[in-house]
TrEMBL record:
It comes from Hominibacterium faecale. SUPFAM superfamilies: CBS-domain pair, Inosine monophosphate dehydrogenase (IMPDH). The keyword Flavoprotein does not apply. InterPro entries: Aldolase_TIM, CBS_dom, CBS_dom_sf, IMP_DH, IMP_DH/GMP_Rdtase_CS, IMP_DH_GMPRt. This is IMP dehydrogenase.
Length: 503
């Protein structure tokens, strides 16, 4: 006889927190969102802790080195996507580990033989007004010039004009040599009244830009997540196919933590991957596993040696696994049951294995609910894909700025390793879609805003830390009718655009 769960599959939107007593201590400034990432024994501390409970999804459209740096500055960890060559993924890790504050890798680059029309298109796509002209059009190519909006007049020039005809050529550029410190580069900016200065190596190859605006708007990053060498922390996704080659390359590149990326992780392949890591590195390499959605799945991965366990099947915004295959579980129900299993495992063994709720966060308050239900941290894809730092193009569609966001199981990503179940045959159907998401600005502003809400709700619940929230939260299921009561209702909204600010 098949097993039937007593409860229906529930999602975050079906729950609300009920306030607890708040003392005068319960102020947003007093809330601490520190959280463990990898397992630890009773009485000890996790060897990797984040300052905020957010990690970015293991996806092409979300987690590259640029987003990883932005998130580490805020206190979280990005898991660089694994659906790329081992060399490229390791190079991204290396770039995060060697990142120097203020030195920016150029992401608007063009060749001298391209046209003004192409330049304008690039400017629209990237949103940058400074473009590097390199011999091969790459961010590391030999620098032959720079174009800013002062170099051309659209009204007077043909769109066919070649970039080399109007760029400021290398001979006229002021630059700094690789190895200069940020303060030296800034002196060059100030002394020469420049907005930008390129940094080049001994072979005239572009390495970075330093921008005056970055210096002027320099933010304080009190939550920066750094390793013992003061480098930003970063994670990486791996699969259960090429782990024997991929993992050593990522470890060598400096990845702080790995995660097996699979749509369904209650499998022997995950155990093989974990066994490989333990045999080669013992406990010195940290690796999470998943995804699972029930007690059995958690216990299997816990026994197999996972450092953390990731929860979620089919709840991702771009995911169509449930429609295609009929497997999955409402994210709230999955987190609640796995959190119970995690607590039971801790009681029994004295080992605390952090759990990560992956996917399905739509409103900021869902983050608070996921934590209250027992998640130690949360993985988000759609949320991060909307920001300046995500790797995808920013487009103007019918007057609205959007960014592209596609699933790892879509034809565009072709990350079949995430979905295959052994054998040589590649999957022949998609489990994800290609989409647009509303552009939302800088990661830092958004993360701070969202977490302000999380902290505020925690104060309402009378708690100042995530473990306290997990212990003391009181939750109620909302009825379909009371859902209506939760939004603005029975009034005529003056400004409907406001509703998008809620996300
Ligand atoms: P969301 O934050 O709701 O956008 O969900 C992101 C999660 O969705 C990822 O972390 C991953 O678990 C899952 N995903 C990624 N690609 C796909 C797919 O193509 N089905 N699903």
């Amino acid at each position: 006889m098949a097993v039937y769960f007593n409860e229906p599959s529930r999602t975050f939107s079906e729950y609300l927190l009920v306030p607890g007593y708040s003392s005068k201590e319960c102020r947003v400034d007093n809330v601490n969102l520190a959280t463990p990432v990898v397992k630890f024994k009773k009485g000890e501390e996790s060897s990797i802790k984040m300052k905020i409970p957010l990690v970015s999804a293991i996806m092409q459209a979300v987690s590259d080195d640029k987003l990883a740096v932005a998130l580490a500055k805020e206190g979280g960890i990005s898991f660089i996507f694994g659906s790329q060559t081992i060399e490229n993924q390791a190079a991204m890790i290396r770039r995060v580990k060697s990142h120097k504050a203020g030195f920016v890798t150029s992401d608007a680059n063009i060749r001298p033989d391209q046209t003004l029309g192409e330049l304008l298109e690039l400017k629209e796509r990237t949103g940058h007004s400074t473009t590097a002209v390199t011999e091969d059009g790459t961010a590391e190519g030999k620098l032959v010039g720079i174009v800013t909006s002062r170099d051309y007049r659209i009204s007077r020039m043909s769109l066919e004009t070649k970039v080399k005809e109007f760029m400021t050529p290398f001979e006229k550029l002021i630059y700094v040599k690789e190895g200069a410190t940020l303060s030296e580069a800034n002196d060059v900016l100030w002394d020469n009244k420049l907005n930008t200065v390129p940094v080049i190596d001994d072979n005239q190859r572009l390495t970075h830009f330093v921008f005056r605006k970055d210096y002027d708007t320099h933010k304080a990053y009190p939550n920066e997540l750094l390793d013992e060498h003061k480098r930003y922390m970063v994670g990486a996704g791996v699969n259960t196919r090429d782990y024997a080659e991929r993992i050593p390359a990522l470890v060598e590149a400096g990845a702080d933590v790995l995660c097996i990326d699979s749509s369904e992780g209650f499998s022997e392949w995950q155990k093989d991957t974990l066994d490989f890591v333990r045999a080669k590195y013992g406990d010195s390499v940290k690796i999470g596993a998943g995804n699972v959605v029930d007690r059995e799945g958690f216990n299997y991965l816990a026994e197999a040696g996972a450092d953390f366990v990731k929860i979620g099947i089919g709840g991702g915004s771009i995911c169509i696994t449930r429609e295609q295959k009929g497997i999955g579980r409402g994210q709230a129900s999955a987190v609640i049951e796995v959190a119970q299993a995690r607590n039971e495992y801790y009681e029994k063994t004295g080992v605390y294995i952090p759990i990560c709720s992956d996917g399905g966060i739509v409103y900021d308050y869902h983050m608070t609910l996921a934590l209250a239900m027992g998640a130690d941290f949360i993985m988000l894809g759609r949320y991060f894909s909307r920001f300046d730092e995500s790797p995808t193009n920013k487009l103007n569609i019918n007057g609205n700025y959007v960014k592209e966001y596609w699933g790892e199981g879509s034809n565009r990503a072709r990350n079949w390793q995430r979905y295959d179940m052994g054998g040589d045959s590649k999957l022949s159907f998609e489990e994800g879609v290609d989409s647009y998401v509303p552009y939302a600005g800088a990661l830092s502003d958004n993360v701070r805003y969202s977490l302000q809400k999380v902290k505020s709700t925690m104060c309402n619940c009378g708690v100042l830390t995530i473990p306290e929230l997990q212990k003391k939260a009181k939750m109620t299921i909302v009825s379909a009718t009371s859902l209506v009561e939760g939004g603005a209702h029975d009034v005529i909204l003056k400004d409907t655009s406001n509703s998008s600010n809620l996300r």
